[in-house]
C-alpha cells in the first residue's frame, strides 16, 4: 500500500502555511500521497484575493470584510507588525531563493498533493466554491478527513 | 571518482527545493544512471539518503568540499 499523509491546515498564518507546504512537497517528492484539509483560518490560504460571492446576514458580511483571504495576504503568526514584519520575511525568503508560498503551492499541486476544503467552516465564514481557488480538489467534512487519516501513517495539525 | 550521467545544480537552494528538483531531474534519467547533485544546504546530508531510502533509489556517495556538497545517486531499476 502506498504511504499516505494528511495535514490539517487550521491556521491561516503565513509561516504555518509555509511549514505545511514545505512538508507536503517533501512528502510528495518521497512518493507519499498527501491530502491537505483546509479549515477555519486555513481556508484563507486557498481563497481568491477578492471575495466573489455575496453573503447574506450581517455577521457573515462583517466577517468577510475583516477576514482577508488570498495567499498573498496572509500574516505571520509573530512579528506581522501591521505588515512590515511580513513584508521583510518575504524579502528575506526571496534573498534566500526560497519560493514564495504561491509557488510552493503550485509545486505541491504538480506533485499531486490534494486540496480539500472544509464545507462547515466555509459556511461559517460565508464562503462558496467561487471564493476558493480552482486548485481545490474536493469539498468535504470530518468523516472524509477521518477516513483519510485512518489510512495514513502521518497526520499533522497546523 | 564516480562518473555521473547528469548533473543538477542546487547551490543556494533550501529544503524542500533540492529534493523537489531531484524528483524532476530523475525523470530524465534511465534506470541505472547516476545523477550528481551540487548543494550547499546542510540538511541535504540527511535528506538525500532519506529520500533515496523512501523512493528505492540508490545513494552512492557524498563529498563535502568545505560546505559544498557533491552527491551521487543512482536511479533504481524499473520493475
Topology, element by element:
The complex is a heterodimer of chains A (about 160) and B (about 80).
Chain A (H helix, E strand, L loop, with lengths): L3 E6 L4 H16 L3 E6 L19 H9 L17 H12 L5 H10 L3 E5 H6 L13 E3 L1 H9 L3 E4 L1
Parallel strand pairs in A: 1-2, 1-5, 2-3, 3-4
Chain B lengths: L5 E5 L6 H10 L7 E6 L4 H12 L2 E8 L2 E7 L5
Parallel strand pairs in B: 1-2
Antiparallel strand pairs in B: 2-4, 3-4
Q: What is the count of DSSP helices of chain B, taking H or I runs of 4+ residues?
A: 2
Strand order of the largest sheet of chain B: 1-2-4-3
Count of individual helical segments of chain A: 6
Mean pLDDT of chain A: 92
Low-pLDDT sequence parts of chain A:
none
Which protein chains make the most extensive interface, counting residues with beta carbons within 8 Å of the other chain's beta carbons? A-B, 14 and 15 residues
What share of residues of chain B is helical?
Answer: 25-40%
The end-to-end span of chain A amounts to 26 Å
Structural class determined from secondary elements of chain A: alpha/beta
DSSP strand content of chain A: 15-25%
Rounded to an integer in angstroms, the radius of gyration calculated over CA atoms of chain A is 16 Å
Beta-strand content bin of chain B: 25-35%
Pairing-aware structural class of the strands and helices of chain B? alpha+beta
Rounded average pLDDT of chain B? 94
> What strand line-up does the widest sheet of chain A have?
4-3-2-1-5
Number of domains of chain A: 1
> Could you tell me the number of beta strands of chain A?
5
Give a short summary of the structure.
Chain A has helices spanning 14-29, 58-66, 84-95, 101-110, 119-124, 142-150; strands at residues 4-9, 33-38, 114-118, 138-140, 154-157.
Protein architecture, described:
The complex is a heterodimer of chains A (158) and B (79). Chain A is globular. The model of chain A has no long low-confidence stretch (mean pLDDT 92). In chain A, helix 5 links the parallel strand 3 and strand 4 (138-140). Chain A contains six helices and five strands, in the order E-H-E-H-H-H-E-H-E-H-E. Chain A is of the alpha/beta class and 158 residues long. In chain A, strands 4-3-2-1-5 form a five-stranded parallel beta sheet, sandwiched between helices. Chain B is α+β, with helices and mostly antiparallel strands and 79 residues long. Chain B has a domain at 1-31 and 57-73. Helices cover 28% and strands 33% of the residues of chain B. Chain B has two helices and four strands, in the order E-H-E-H-E-E. Chain B has helices at 17-26, 44-55; strands at 6-10, 34-39, 58-65, 68-74. A four-stranded mixed beta sheet of chain B has the order 1-2-4-3, covered by helices on one side. In chain B, strand 1, helix 1 (17-26) and strand 2 (34-39) form a beta-alpha-beta unit. The longest helix of chain B has 12 residues, at 44-55. The mean pLDDT of chain B is 94. Classes of the chains: A alpha/beta (158), B alpha+beta (79). The A-B interface holds A 3, 22, 25-26, 29-32, 96-99, 107, 111 and B 12-17, 19-20, 22-23, 47, 50-51, 54-55.
